[in-house]
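Hi both,

Apologies for the delay on this - the queue was longer than expected. I finally got the zinc ion-bound model through. Below you'll find the protein sequence and the ligand SMILES exactly as submitted, and right after that the structure tokens for the full complex including the ligand.
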Amino acid sequence: MFPLLFLFLSMVQISVQQCLPWTYNNPNKDWPKCWPTCDNTLHPLQSPVDIVNQVVDPLMGPAVFLFPDMDTVTLRHDDHTVSVVYPTGYTGGFSVNGMVYRLEEFHFHTPAENYLSILGEGEGQLDMEIHMVHKSYNSTNGTHTAILSLLWQKVDDYTHPWLNQILKNLSSISNQNQSLNIPLTDLSSLFNDQQKDFGYWTIEGSLTTPPCTGAVTWYIMQVPLKCSRAQWRQFHEFFSGGNGNGNARPVQRQILQARAFMPSKSTPPSLLIVGLVVSLVVVISVVLSGVALYWHSKKKGIDLARPTYERL
Ligand SMILES: [Zn+2]
């Protein structure tokens, strides 16, 4: 029994070793050969996704973010990205609907992996995405992974100061597996009031790199952050992924009704239009009723201005 098990485990190990290093050249075809969990026909809840439309879920509450500054985090050049790794015991993270998640690390993808068809034709591909990988802190059903996604858009007229803390150190970790300890401040500043106002989508999915492990809850912030084209280029050239196309796994599925949290103080434009139309219909009905009543009374010779008893 044990020799057979050992033989089987050795074969699996050899097989995975033959798959390394994996690349972004042909992920849909190559990854499932080595990691069956990456096969989206066998494991359909794969990420990244294309959000086509949404349904506001009244049971979802606001997310609260708190990321204390750190004197030392580890900036690391992994095989396929740059990660910022927090020390064990870091208490920063976010909470939502009674769940508390603590941040373990975050990393970058260019272009963005999750796609937003909901923004309209030609608008869905964002330029960069930060994945903030969290583990549940107070789950009663074992540890659970949650990824908080921040989408970024490159623009002409704005340079994001927070990104420079990382960009200025990239040259020190230009080789794979190099790392550097740096201080990192103001991570909470990425979650400003505007982000909170526009809410998030939450989706059950997977990791977007091998082994594409499932049971990951995603929280995708709805409002993209902005960075300069030069900042974006620095990241993109760093993550060329060997093919110049960056380090993004292709979209694995469409989400036709993504669960959305929309804060009550922020009324969606569609509801404003519905409210306006309903108000207009009510006003027109009242006016038409008044006119009809007037003509009806006139025809019958009733003076509406007089008290009823005088007309009897
Ligand atoms: Zn990622």
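Main takeaway for now: The mean pLDDT is 84.

I'll put the files on the shared drive as well.

H.
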